[in-house]
Amino acid sequence: MFDGLILLGQGIAHFLTPAGLFNVAWATLLGLAIGILPGLTATMGVALLVTLTYKMAPDQAILTLMCVYLGAIYGGSRTAILLNIPGTPANAAATLDGHPLAMQGKAGLAMGLATTSSTLGTLVGIFFLAIIAPMLAEAALKFGSYEFFWLALFGVVISGQMTGSDTPLKGYIAGILGLLVAMVGMETLHAYQRFTFGIPALGGGVDLIPAMVGAFGLAEILSTMKRTAMPKIAAVNDRVIPTLREIFQYWKTIIRSGIIGTFVGIIPGVGEDVGAWSSYAAAKKRSKHPEEFGKGSQEGLIAAETGDNAVVSAAMIPTLTLALPGSAAAAVLIAAMMIHGIRPGPMLMIENAPFLYQVVAMLLLATLANLIFGLSLTKVFIKVLSVPRERLMAVIYVLCVVGSFAITQRMFDVYVMLFFGIVGFILREMKYPMAPLVLGIVLGDLLDLNLRRGLALTNGDPTPFFTRPISAVICLIIVLTILMSIPAVNRRVRALFTRNRGGVEAQG
Amino acid sequence: MSADASPIRPADDNDPARIRADLITALVLVALGLAVTYFSWTMDRLEVRRIHPSTIPGLVPLILGIALTLCGSLLAFRSARLDAKAGGAALIRILVSWQAVRVLTVLGLALIYTLGFVGRMPFWLASALFIFAFITLFETVLADRPGSLPRTLIWALIVALGAGLGVHYIFGQIFLVRLP
């Protein structure tokens, strides 16, 4: 317990240097601008910035990326409130009440509430990160090939189930496509080249960063430029800094949303948007004034913004301890950590224990910077919001080319970016979620290697995959998740519970 | 299904064009799944190296190929069952819409820049040309309310040169990143 506190103190002190604070300031401002600008997402920002941080020291590089990530998720709420379009997908739930508040002349209050609730959400997530991550890392040391196979599969399945917008089938398909992408290139067990079709560049497989820059950069540019007209920016005439009473009268909502966001963040590949929607739905269900939701409810806005920011911190729990990305942006962070020689996973606490607490410190500093900039630079951010997308998107595409080329200096990676951009755009238009696809690419190798290694250990006998206790539990969860996504099964199970409850009520 | 799948998020799965497009995509996915299954089945099983048959390189791709075929078939079945009256016409309307023209323009410019310009001229010049063409097209021909042409051209030139040279100096000189 005290070891943890000491390590946390050392982590904070580690970054309280002029260089560290300078990086926090510019990266947070950049993240905020990325979040505010419609069409630029947190994942895109982090993926593009990996290139810039390539030559930095590892800790400063991850600090910079983390500030951009958190800044963008928070910054998107500005766009949601003032423009009625989410700055990043995470802020979609914030538009429901944020924009009506702005229309009622309370844009400043809405921005203030979003800022403070974002900070509180991050703090709740940080609290759980500091507590859960060391315990999970210790437990994960007992995991073998069997457990890691199931965990990788669980990540893809649960991400597909929870992010598939009109049917989980599309989520599963996106996950399978991601896993198939990971199958391209040399496999690690027998060093055999799969699906390379004689193209030497495919031998090393598809790198995550160019694929992400395409799927979140070019695809986003195409989506943004598709829209013809942009809505008008709402006027800000009231105060931005909220009173303590305005915030803390909803303390129950804040804690609940923070916990929901944390839970969503821990689930691999289920990002901030699900955290925000889940918190919003729970707040509406429990609210004394559910009729105000969607018409400018302060509680609704607080729930949405607390939920999505809690996800960011909590997403670091599986990312750092199991190397399973908690969100799409966390997947890029894993790739960035690998580039900088940091190996996330169960061994992190043994090999590099202070790093976990440095991440906690990074999140604390980033959220503090968000709070300060968010409450003080309102006018500047409104100016950012009015940058014409026609001028911005062209420059972003140039950065996509640079970002995908710079890491390995191969034009092949630029073509990979282009391919994933086009495929990603088509999939998005068809309502296929991107998170399972990304998770599939990241976890494909883990899944493949651990399944075959496990089978090799038992001479082809699959029994341990089902009989080892942790394996059996994860396997059962996967089966239940898939079964529950079948409409007929889902309906029957729900009906069963409703009937039972009805029976109990009738008896009472 | 949508209500069950995602009770917290608003969803629109009744769009006839989407249902028809889903059917077409599902068929493509089934074809892809079958192709992956075939290539995985015929993949070298490394018998000469005497590896255990359960660790063949094609094992996981084979499972994934079958899973993709299965999911694609289910999606095709679901889309075929849902009512999609005039779905084909609605889909074609989307494909030939103004929005499609805008998307194809971005894509065309990106392809010309990436495959044609980059590597054949200095990166800053290639980028400046791309940005200039992009801004000019989208602020004049493809704009809903086009502004004055001289103003657009001046802005396009400023942004193009600023970004082209800016990327060259910031990435290339300050952060020492290799440019294409």
Could you tell me how far the N terminus lies from the C terminus of chain B, measured between alpha carbons in angstroms?
A: 47 Å
Supply the helix-strand structural class of chain A.
Answer: mainly alpha
The biggest beta sheet of chain B is recorded as: none
Percent of residues of chain B in beta strands? under 5%
Pick out the low-confidence regions of chain B: 1-8
Cα end-to-end separation of chain A: 47 Å
Number of strand elements of chain B: 0
Low-pLDDT residue intervals, each spanning 5 or more residues of chain A:
none
**Structure summary, number of beta strands of chain A:** 2
The overall number of domains of chain B is 2
- Global mean pLDDT of chain B: 88
* Structural class computed from helices and strand pairing of chain B: mainly alpha
The global form of chain A is globular
Biggest beta sheet attributes of chain A? 2 strands, antiparallel
Number of helices of chain B: 7
Question: What share of the residues of chain A lie within helices?
Answer: over 70%
H-E string of chain B: HHHHHHH
Backbone shape of chain B:
flat
Descriptive terms for the model:
heterodimer, A: 508 residues, mainly alpha, two-stranded antiparallel ribbon, 2 strands, 75% helix, globular, B: 180 residues, 2 domains, flat, disordered N terminus
Describe, in plain words, how this protein is organized in 3D.
- The complex is a heterodimer of chains A (508) and B (180).
- In chain A, 75% of the residues lie in helices and 1% in strands.
- With 508 residues, chain A is mostly helical.
- Chain A has a domain at 2-142 and 209-388.
- The radius of gyration of chain A is 22 Å and the shape is globular.
- With 180 residues, chain B is mainly α.
- The longest helix of chain B is centred in the N-terminal third of the chain and has 26 residues, at 16-41.
- Mean pLDDT of chain B is 88; it is low at 1-8.
- At the A-B interface, helix 8, helix 9, helix 12, helix 19 and helix 20 of A face helix 1, helix 2, helix 3, helix 5 and helix 6 of B.
